[in-house]
Amino acid sequence: MTNYILRRIAQAIPLLLIISIILFTLMQAIGDPIATLGARIPPKPEDKERLRRQLGLDLPVFFIDCKTEKLSLSPGNKPSLGTKVGNILTNTDCQFSLYNQYLVWLVGNDWRMVDMDGDGLGDVPGKRLGVLRGDLGTSLVTRRPVVEMIADRLPNTLILMVTVEIIIILLSLALGLYSALRPYSAFDNIATGLSFVGFSMPVFWLALSLMYLFAVNFRRWGLPYLPTVGMFDPAVGKTPAELIKHMILPVATLSIISIAGYSRFVRSSVLETLGQDYVRTARAKGLRGIIVVMRHALPNAVLPFITLIGLDIPFLLAGAVVTESIFAWPGMGRLFIDHTERSDFPILMGILMLIAVAVVFFQIVTDVVYSFVDPRIRLD
Amino acid sequence: MAVSSIKTNVSSAKVSLSPSALAVRRFRKHRMAMVGLGLLILLALYITAGVVFSHGYCAPIGQDVSGESYANCNDTSLKLRSPSAEHPFGTDVIGRDILARTVYGGQISLLIGLSAAIMEVALGALIGLIAAYYGGWVDNLLMRIAEAMLTIPNLFLLIIGARFFTNAIPNINLFGRELTGNVIIIILIIGFTSWMYVARIVRANVLSLREQDYVSASRALGASDSRIIFGHLLPNTIAPLIVSATLGVAGAIISEAYVSFLGLGVQGATATWGNMLEGAYRYLETAPWLWFFPGTLILFTVLGINFIGDGLRDALDPRSTRHI
């Protein structure tokens, strides 16, 4: 077992490195963070230059740094090497550079002096510690540490998503089991039809419909209505009752869609188990129906469901981008979308790497847990 | 196959049907798939025949217009009108007719859905085939990349991808229509961020097919790699590919809607069901028709496609005993 876990961790490290390289490459093209700073008055070119240097954005991105020069072909100008495309001659020159943005992001720059005034010589010792030592960098927009900004939003997201996940587990087990015990009954057929509608529903459509019915129309009809946006009503304050009231609609939106799919999964899994020989044996020896189902069929039927839930857990951290946007819920999804618009890549890298690490971690945990609950599985 | 043909043809046991005829028969007996097909035929009629309703007087130009120019005619004096005889679905924030825009937007949404699904399946099948057939480090590298991309939630990848190409492409002309260039971008992004599951299915299938005798026989006869891959392995994995492609259309339409809803999708005058929803939630109380009509059309389309996908899965895989 220990060997297995160690091997899985050893496999996870290169995977996470590949992920970070793919993401870091994508980040270079989401827009120039400097260009979006200073919204009204565009900063002067020399200010931009200084800012770029201070933020370490002047460094080459990766270890191999290629510069492509465009030279126009004039009679007197005869460069020795390069490729000719039409009338433009490009000269590509690649250099290896150890000190680059990716390395600073990964391991920090406290091991060398940083050039602040642009004379090519280091004058201030670096302060970045790098992701490997838990420093996710500083937001380019707010200048606050990324770790702090994520820590601000994470509880909001978790309170929403963990509630959603608990409701999903309980209701899909109940609905799936009930359907499986009465297959092809009226209830089962209706549940099947509705579940198709449920998982075909775009999340915004459901969110807006629920809001329109329970917030807008209930208010119009003089019924008690639900709030639509935010976590608390500023007039009332941060009370638990307010929080619950504000959670009802986003939780309903997010859980209805998942319950639709998961309850069908539980149903088919229970139906399959009920056809097994050991269930027939249990019935044959005269056990009551409820005991056969609860003690013999259900525990075996929910085994694959454990994997499904285990692989869901890391994505709870990510929040729900669309739902959080509609309900103005200040969670991780909103943080991500807001800072994408401002090309604030340290935040985006931080959120995405946090999710990636959580996914890899929970994959290992799920496999290990599975081998405990199902002794037929051996991990070697 | 013999067993299932006896089972499905008890009444006409003497007629022996080909596997594909059997699949068609199973599909036609699938009640939900037939409902889905009916739904999609209605939607197809809506976005094609609906064009005839797209005409009327356009005040800013000062003349009667028809076709897409009516859908793009923004008469700001008519903004946010509720549904009426003249504008059955109401008008949007700058006074464009929503009915006409759902017709033309539907064409673009389906174009995006179909092209992205084709790209997803083509890319996934190619990568899966290469990984399984060559094995070794090629397989390892491709599957690690697939794993890496599956680790990041799809919507996050889509958002970054959409930022990647903002306004990078000029307008294009397709079937006589002027389209905003980032329709192509959205198709590419959805295709590039959704091939991973297809690649995994194809790879797993080909890994088992590769050991079959007919592949060894073909190799012994001197067939080239590409002949074995495209002549033998690919046709035998076609069933899961058809199902993935069908469900992929629904996935792509939803992806486009999410990205556009967040304001990062197709921009400009070109309507899609997704970008008609952008910002509509700000008018939740005052103008619910803004999001209701395009949103419901997306729901019906996705529902129809999911029904058909389910029917195809049951029809193409005779071993599946799944009855819903």
What is the H-and-E element order of chain A? HHHEEEHEEHHHHHHHHHH
Strand/helix succession of chain B:
HHHEEHHHHEEHHHHHH
The value of Rg of chain B in angstroms is: 23 Å
Query: What structural class is derived from the secondary structure elements of chain B?
Result: mainly alpha
Note the beta-strand portion of chain B: under 5%
Indicate the topology.
The complex is a heterodimer of chains A (380) and B (324).
Chain A: H1 2-27, H2 33-36, H3 45-54, E1 64-72, E2 83-85, E3 88-96, H4 101-107, E4 113-114, E5 124-125, H5 146-181, H6 186-200, H7 203-220, H8 240-274, H9 277-284, H10 289-301, H11 303-318, H12 321-326, H13 332-341, H14 345-373
Antiparallel strand pairs in A: 1-3, 2-3, 4-5
Helix pairs in contact in A: 1-14, 5-8, 5-11, 5-14, 6-8, 7-8, 8-10, 9-10, 11-14, 13-14
Chain B: H1 2-8, H2 19-29, H3 31-49, E1 55-58, E2 63-66, H4 68-71, H5 98-134, H6 136-151, H7 154-164, E3 172-174, E4 177-179, H8 182-192, H9 196-209, H10 213-220, H11 225-236, H12 238-261, H13 289-316
Concise synopsis of the structure shown:
The complex is a heterodimer of chains A (about 375) and B (about 325). Chain A is mainly alpha-helical and about 375 residues long. Chain A contains 14 helices and 5 strands.
Description:
Chain A has 380 residues and is mainly alpha-helical. Chain A is built from 14 helices and 5 strands. Chain A is globular, with a radius of gyration of 28 Å. Chain A starts with a helix and ends in a 7-residue tail after the last helix. The mean pLDDT of chain A is 84. Chain B is mostly helical and 324 residues long. Helices cover 62% and strands 4% of the residues of chain B. Chain B has a two-stranded antiparallel ribbon with strand order 1-2. Chain B is elongated. The interface between A and B is large, with 47 and 43 residues.
